[in-house]
């Protein structure tokens, strides 16, 4: 619960205004705890206008960064809204910038207007709980812990972590892959793929130049490792007894981990489709967000991917999508990438 | 039937790292079991990258397994689990 001096119905009316200054201020206040609701208000208003007379609404980035102040109530106190000055809190600024980088990749490259493709305000909360070694997507917003400082640094430190979490929102709004076993590992892999692409696009790195690491900088000083996952070489990101030993990700189907933990090993088996994406991106050449990214994006959002998809079904669909978008050579490159991880497509 | 020990495993999370700890003091194990059983019906949520907790509750004659998400955990239990996992390291 929170209280404002302006009643919510007035804020909702203000949020529908065309004047961006009025609208942004109202959204910032409302968006405190209702980003989806706010988005619906705006969409409804847009829908009521005649489609023939209404000018198209240009996508506009709308970020809301909150501070949980080491508690667990979400979203917490609003500390930086869109356009507000830089904070003195590094986590707030990293979250703000990372949400911006993610929004920009989706808008610039894939023409997607925020995670719901309808201009949803992006909300993130930093300083969640105490010594919290995690970041997650709660279905409506991103949540970032500060890490324990011994094994993990703050989870906003790596822009691909932010891209990863937001992509869970994109997947949830589209294919909505079930978060268990192979479909769950695909869900995780798609978040790693676009998380890495957010970083590559921000740094303007080609597929050959990119480090393909997930969570670089996240491991605290003294921990043996460079990141949490490597898409280029799954299973090599870390090796430290305090993290349970070696990075367990497989790069090939023959090493698929059968387990009941972690929803059927979704963060482990994602190494297989992760590596397939890497192989496809390198084979297609140039920038990974271009051909390879478009093939994966179209596969996830195009409507043909089932929520309970398996690895072979996903692989088959990416091959068909590559053929449709870029022709026979791209089809072959993507098919060979899947062969590289043990999956033969027809 | 009194609880003898509880084995706690936490998997998932963004890092996907699995850690295990154990409560073998019968009083502490009993108290933890009551808190877990009281939270079983809490909504599990639809979060992605949330932790997954697995509690294996061992009595003299039975072994029960209860799984819950981080979202399901009662807030009061979080600090206790945190210190349990820290004790392990």
UniProtKB/TrEMBL annotation, chain A:
Domain Peptidase M4 C-terminal residue range list:
175-342
Statement: the UniProt record of this protein carries the keyword Ion transport:
no
Looking at its record, which EC class is this enzyme?
hydrolase
**Which controlled-vocabulary keywords does the entry list?**
Hydrolase, Metal-binding, Metalloprotease, Protease, Secreted, Zinc
Q: Name one Pfam family in it.
A: Peptidase_M4
- Listed cofactors: Zn(2+)
EC number(s) of the enzyme?
Answer: 3.4.24.-
Keyword set includes Zinc: yes
Q: What does this protein do?
A: Extracellular zinc metalloprotease.
Protein family per UniProt: Belongs to the peptidase M4 family.
Query: What protein does this entry describe?
Result: Neutral metalloproteinase
From TrEMBL, chain B:
* Source organism, top-level taxon: Bacteria
Which InterPro entries would you find in this protein's record?
A: Emfourin
Q: Where is this region: Disordered?
A: 69-89
Q: What name has this protein been given in UniProt? A: Uncharacterized protein
Q: What is the source species?
A: Amnibacterium soli
């Amino acid at each position: 619960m929170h209280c404002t001096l302006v009643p919510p119905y007035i804020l909702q009316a203000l949020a529908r205004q065309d004047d961006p200054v009025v609208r942004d201020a109202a959204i910032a206040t409302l968006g405190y705890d209702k980003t989806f609701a706010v988005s619906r208000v705006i969409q409804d208003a847009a829908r009521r206008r005649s489609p023939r007379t209404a000018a198209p609404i240009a996508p506009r980035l709308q970020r809301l960064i909150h501070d949980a102040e080491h508690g667990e109530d979400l979203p917490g106190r609003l500390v930086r809204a869109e356009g507000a000055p830089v904070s003195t809190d590094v986590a707030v600024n990293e979250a703000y910038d990372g949400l911006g980088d993610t929004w920009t990749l989706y808008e610039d490259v894939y023409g997607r207007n925020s995670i719901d493709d309808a201009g949803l305000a992006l909300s993130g909360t930093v300083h969640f709980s105490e010594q919290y070694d995690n970041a997650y997507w709660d279905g409506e917003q991103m949540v970032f812990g500060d890490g324990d400082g011994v094994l993990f640094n703050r989870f906003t430190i790596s822009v691909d972590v932010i891209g990863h979490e937001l992509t869970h929102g994109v997947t949830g709004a589209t294919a909505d892959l079930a978060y268990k076993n192979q479909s769950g590992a695909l869900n995780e892999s798609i978040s790693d793929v676009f998380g890495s692409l957010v970083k590559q696009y921000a740094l303007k790195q080609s597929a050959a130049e990119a480090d393909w690491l997930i969570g670089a900088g996240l491991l605290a000083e003294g921990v043996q490792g460079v990141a949490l996952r490597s898409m280029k070489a799954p299973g090599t990101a870390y090796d430290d007894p305090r993290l349970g030993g070696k990075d367990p990700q497989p790069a090939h189907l023959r090493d698929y981990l059968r387990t009941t933990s972690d929803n059927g090993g979704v963060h482990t088996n994602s190494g297989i489709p992760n590596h397939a994406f890497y192989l496809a991106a390198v084979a297609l050449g140039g920038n990974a967000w271009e051909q390879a990214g478009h093939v994966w994006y179209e596969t996830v959002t195009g409507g043909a991917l089932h929520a309970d998809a398996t690895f072979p079904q996903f692989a088959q669909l990416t091959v068909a999508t590559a053929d449709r978008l870029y022709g026979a050579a791209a089809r072959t490159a993507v098919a060979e990438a899947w062969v590289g991880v043990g999956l033969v497509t027809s | 039937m009194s609880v003898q020990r509880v084995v706690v495993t936490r998997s998932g999370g963004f890092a996907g790292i699995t850690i295990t700890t154990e409560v073998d003091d019968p009083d502490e194990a009993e108290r933890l079991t009551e808190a877990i059983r009281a939270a079983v019906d809490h909504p599990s949520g639809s979060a992605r990258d949330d932790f997954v907790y697995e509690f294996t509750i061992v009595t003299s004659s039975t072994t029960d397994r209860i799984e819950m998400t981080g979202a399901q955990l009662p807030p009061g239990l979080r600090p206790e689990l945190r210190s349990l996992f820290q004790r392990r390291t």
